[in-house]
Design a protein that fits this description.
This protein is mostly helical and 242 residues long. It contains 10 helices and 2 strands; from the N terminus they run H-H-H-E-E-H-H-H-H-H-H-H. The chain has helices at residues 18-32, 44-51, 55-67, 89-97, 101-122, 125-140, 144-161, 165-181, 198-211, 215-241, and strands at 71-74, 78-81.
Length: 242
């Protein structure tokens, strides 16, 4: 696998695995750019040049990300970041009005350890490769936004690796609510995560357990990671309120 330096992508892939390479490069490009939700991507021709792949392979990669709910396309208008707006989002807004970040974290603690367990049981070689890319991308993040993009992608890839459409839909619903009710960007003055940020080692332990098919370690690792996130979130919120 080719992993580029931030903002630098290789020339278009010409081998028979070009479609998979395009998907990897497109995900890397999206993670490195600070696109807001529903932001429009550059036109296909320009995007193919920016990512460094052929237009044919780019279209295949876009189709995969659209199917997975990471992008949506509107004929005549372009390709946009995030899931396609749907009527059900009104229900998500209603739930968000009745919940809090603390409740979102408790919901994550219920569902995501089990998703990690399912991933350990069902993950493919491609899933593991994608998880490793997310882990390394988070470590190389030059801004908090880039880190959050990779972090979000890691957690969703774990959910995808479980190969359960219903559980993935539950995860996506919780994630949509989470984006609505988060306590702002409670970050330090550092421009990016420090080298010893707790999530780096925790993410690696989770992915290691998934790759080793260790169901208990995967679930336990995810639970401990989210408990750490929960403690950190509450502490920062209390500090900001003082």
């Amino acid at each position: 696998m080719i992993v580029s330096e931030p903002g630098v992508f290789p020339p278009p892939a010409t081998d028979r695995n070009g479609g998979q390479s395009a998907l990897v490069q497109l995900r890397a490009y999206l993670a490195q750019k600070e696109f807001a939700l529903n932001a429009r991507l550059p036109p296909e021709r320009e995007l193919a040049e920016l990512v460094g792949v052929s237009r044919g392979d780019l279209r295949k990669a876009l189709a995969v990300l659209e199917e997975q709910g990471e992008l949506w396309r509107h004929v005549g208008k372009g390709t946009f970041v995030g899931a396609r707006p749907v009527a059900e989002l009104a229900s998500v807004a209603m739930i968000a009005d009745q919940t809090s970040p603390a409740e979102v974290m408790r919901a994550r603690l219920v569902i995501e350890p089990e998703l990690a367990r399912e991933a350990a049981l069902h993950a493919t070689t491609d899933d593991i490769r994608a998880l490793r890319l997310c882990v390394s991308g988070a470590r190389r993040a030059e801004t908090w936004r880039q880190y959050e993009n990779w972090d979000n992608r890691l957690h969703r890839t774990i959910a995808e690796a479980g190969k359960n459409a219903l559980l993935l839909a539950v995860f996506d619903t919780i994630n949509l609510v989470r984006r609505t009710v988060v306590w702002g960007r409670l970050r330090t003055d550092l421009p990016h995560p420090p080298a010893d940020h707790h999530s780096f080692a925790e993410h690696e332990l989770i992915v290691d357990a998934i790759e080793e098919r260790n169901l208990v370690a995967a679930a336990t690792g995810m639970r401990l990671h989210l408990q750490h996130v929960q403690t950190d979130l509450i502490a920062r919120h209390q500090s900001a309120a003082e």
